Amino acid sequence: MAAGGGAGNKTYSFKVVLLGEGCVGKTSLVLRYCENKFNDKHITTLQASFLTKKLNITGKRVNLAIWDTAGQERFHALGPIYYRDSNGAILVYDITDEDSFQKVKNWVKELRKMLGNEICLCIVGNKVDLEKERHVSVEEAEGYAESVGAKHYHTSAKLNKGIEELFLDLCKRMMETAQAEERAKGNGASQSTTSRRGVQIVDDDPQAATAAGGCCSSA
Amino acid sequence: GDPSGDHPPPHQEHRVEQVMDEVEKYIMTRLYKSVFCPETTDNEKKDLATQNRIRALHWVDIQMLCVPVDEEIPAVSDNVVIAITDIIEMDSKRHIFSAIKITKSEPASADDFLPTLIYIVLKSNPPRLQSNIQYITCFCNPSRLMNGEDGYYFTNLCCAVAFIEKLDAQSLNLDPVDFESYMLGQAFPRRPEVDSGWPQIDTAASIPALAQVNQNLDLLSGLRSRQERVLEVAQSMQSDLITWQESVEREVQEILEKYPLEISPPALSAIDSDNMENDRLPLTPQVLLGNISPEWEARGLLELMIPPLCNALSRHWLFTMARFRNWQPPRVYTATILNILTHCKPSRLLSIFPLDPFPKAFTDLN
User: Fold this and answer.
1) Which chain B residue has the Cα nearest residue A30?
2) Cβ–Cβ below 8 Å for B2 and A1
3) Is a pLDDT exceeding 90 seen at residue B92?
4) Across the interface, do A68 and B153 touch by the CB < 8 Å criterion?
5) Residue B120 in 3-state DSSP?
6) Whether A55 contacts chain B with CB within 8 A
7) Are strands A11-20 and A88-94 parallel, antiparallel or unpaired?
8) Average of per-residue pLDDT values in chain B
9) Helix, strand, coil percent content, chain B, rounded in steps of 5
10) How far apart are CA B261 and CA B333, in angstroms?
11) Considering only B43-52, B104-113, B173-182, B213-222, which range has the smallest mean pLDDT?
12) Minimal Cα–Cα distance from B224 to chain A, Å?
């Protein structure tokens, strides 16, 4: 993950959460990407809730873990548990369903609030094969994405359109973020390969240390 | 410096992982006792709270959670049962996925998986759930806990627990009032009729569990009426017994007056020879049967004589014996009583033979 880091033969591991309402085609999207299958009667995969993909981008290995999340409204409050420590989020809506786009907006607000700018956001309008029934205008969607610092993509899991690009682009962006983070951490030399945003060991601040000391000396 | 130096080449990464697994296993096995749910935490309280919470939610059913699993399909319900058992060992996802896949015949997404997992957790109410979660959160290698497949399912379990803790009327699409009364156990959710278009089907027939309950209720009420009948009969039998005993006493008294006991010399020969063919041990009292008037025996009076004889034994006969110390009861008479007593069931003897007056009378006279 952010553990990403480094040059040479370093392997990046990224966690990507998949958010979106029930019927927007999250599962189809990810199954198409990882298994290249769509509504296939012969799908042998038992599940499509956790899938991985190995990539090689400009000579660097990337392990992608894609976390599907339950999209029902009743599970909305559980979101933070899912997207904690994720490097990227794919927010899917159905271009024929205005509601699902509103949901995406809610997710974006929440993600920005909880994870700041460290997370790479992708807003994905799925089902472009149903262009005729479009209810979310391209301008509106792209404009919104830009305003929140996300990138917008159009995909069709059915026609296998735009999906490869989506994931490739996201991976590149996550790699950039990881590299920038590393540089910021200072010279790469002191990097800890296992340090993570979520679990960071911070030295006790001096105040706490003295407080403890005072306690001991008073005894 | 060159950070690439820190990282093992890919083919060794797997080995490193393995070694770390082993080290972790070793350390945690050693530490388990002291770090699993240490006394300084309130994990145990939380465990109990969660268990009670889940118990209070026993009425939540598959429809309320919109679980995409059809338990009518045998293969599905089998998987559900296994999953319920396995979640206690934190290993139930495969069967959950199988159940979903069989029902929906497509791979399970998180939309399917999470509700099903919640349902399974509710049905199994795993012990020490919070402690286990705390233990894993505190001690598992964080880069694995959050990243890999294990991390994903662990996160889902945490989500399930969080959902159960926060669960309210809204999250089940229920009326808050209904929810309250279900929680307090004052009401139980009514199944919506599966086919409201059809004329009302006998609900017992349509829902197997209900049919079972009804059948059990029938059995219970049957048992109850039978028990009442038994009680009635027992009471009438008791009164019958009392009157019977009185009548027998009267009869015996009459007979005793009519045929006073005449003691004839004992036919001792019977002990050794005559009764051998009876296959009885020669020294059992039965051999003295010959001293009981054959007429009594023929008339079935022997049995009837037991209660009055016992009375006599306790009140009169021993009384007499005590008064005239040098008086020996005729052997035959003793034998006869012994003989009769052996015919009598011990339980009956105890109820007939009044133990109380005997020692009293006896001590009075001494």
Assistant:
1) B109
2) no
3) no
4) no
5) helix
6) no
7) parallel
8) 71
9) 70, 0, 30
10) 9
11) B104-113
12) 48
CB contact at 8 A, A67 and A17: yes
Nearest-CA distance B29 → chain A (Å): 23
Contacts of B171 in chain A (CB under 8 A): 74
pLDDT at A215: 44
Task: Tell me how far CA of residue B289 lies from CA of B170, B273, B303, in angstroms.
Answer: 88, 14, 13
- Contact flag B3-A188 (C-beta cutoff 8 Å): yes
**For residue B316, what is the DSSP state?**
I
Q: Nearest residue on chain B to A7, judged by CA atoms?
A: B4
The verdict on A17 touching B (C-beta cutoff 8 Å) is no
CB neighbourhood size of A51 (10 A)? 23
Q: How far is Cα B31 from Cα B24, in angstroms, rounded to an integer?
A: 10
As a whole number of angstroms, the longest Cα–Cα distance in chain B is 130
What would the mean pLDDT of B241-250 be, rounded to a whole number? Answer: 91
Interface membership of B165 toward A (CB under 8 Å): no
Beta bridge partners of A92: A20, A124
DSSP A161: B
pLDDT, residue A167, reads 94
Mean pLDDT of A189-196: 45
Are B364 and B321 within 8 A, CB to CB?
A: no
Indicate yes or no: CB of A70 within 8 angstroms of CB of B114.
yes
Give A12-61 pLDDT, tens digit per residue. 889 999 999 888 888 888 888 888 777 766 566 667 888 889 989 888 89
Q: What is the pLDDT of residues A49-67, one digit of tens each?
A: 888 899 898 888 999 999 9
Q: Which residue of B has its CA nearest to A194?
A: B143
Subunit contact B147:A65, Cβ cutoff 8 A: yes
- In 3-state terms, what secondary structure has residue A198? coil
